[in-house]
Amino acid sequence: MNKAHDRAAFTCGEYALDRYLKQSAGQDLRRGLAVTYVLAESTTPDVIAGFYTLSASSVPLDTFPDETARRLARYPNVPVALIGRLATDIRYRGQHCGSRLLVDALIRICTISETVIGVSAAVVDAKNEDAARFYEHFGFTRFQHSVPPRLFIPLKTARAAVQPLLPKHSRLPTDI
Ligand SMILES: CC(C)(COP(=O)(O)OP(=O)(O)OC[C@H]1O[C@@H](n2cnc3c(N)ncnc32)[C@H](O)[C@@H]1OP(=O)(O)O)[C@@H](O)C(=O)NCCC(=O)NCCS
């Protein structure tokens, strides 16, 4: 996201998400709380078709389903990348902008997890049930008892899905 993007014009139908983009995204970036990524067409680079945010986070291991927890970590907390917000403008709805944003987020998370910082799962905060179903459509699983819904996908699963799209040679030597 940069100053050329017309944040004021963005409307996704969820007031809190629109307001976040207009009022809080810049401040969160400066404070190191979240980075906002936007999707825009090359012909209209100032028009925001959609956006998502990424933050580092961690989730207690015992909140994952038992079977997943066994495979995920041996520590009490699991390092995750949090897709805190994701939305598409109503003018771009149903044009696969949401899926492009989600795939872009997973590609970034898989890339940094191989090269920069350990991440075991991607976690999303869904605003409501409808949004949760969007993420389930892409293979995310719900955390039990989370209201509003919170979902995850193990990075191993995400990596298998986006592997063909990952930048070549993204894996750096891990020996130091
Ligand atoms: C949820 C949202 C991001 C979907 O964006 P979109 O651009 O319309 O989605 P896409 O066109 O990329 O849809 C991709 C696929 O997901 C499916 N899908 C979209 N919304 C869905 C929903 N609510 N439930 C289930 N599936 C859904 C589509 O049918 C499509 O399926 P296909 O690949 O089999 O054709 C958009 O509706 C939105 O911004 N909503 C308001 C904000 C919000 O709720 N954000 C999410 C939580 S913060």
Give a short overview.
With 176 residues, the chain is α+β, with helices and mostly antiparallel strands.
CATH topology: Aminopeptidase
- Ligands, ions, cofactors: coenzyme A
Order of helices and strands: HEEHEHEHEEH
Summarize the biggest pleated sheet: 6 strands, mixed
Descriptive report:
Helix content is 34%, strand content 23%. It is α+β, with helices and mostly antiparallel strands and 176 residues long. It has a 6-stranded mixed beta sheet with strand order 1-2-3-4-6-5, with helices on both faces. Helix 3 (97-115) packs across helix 5.
Describe the structure using short key phrases:
176 residues, Aminopeptidase, alpha+beta, binds coenzyme A
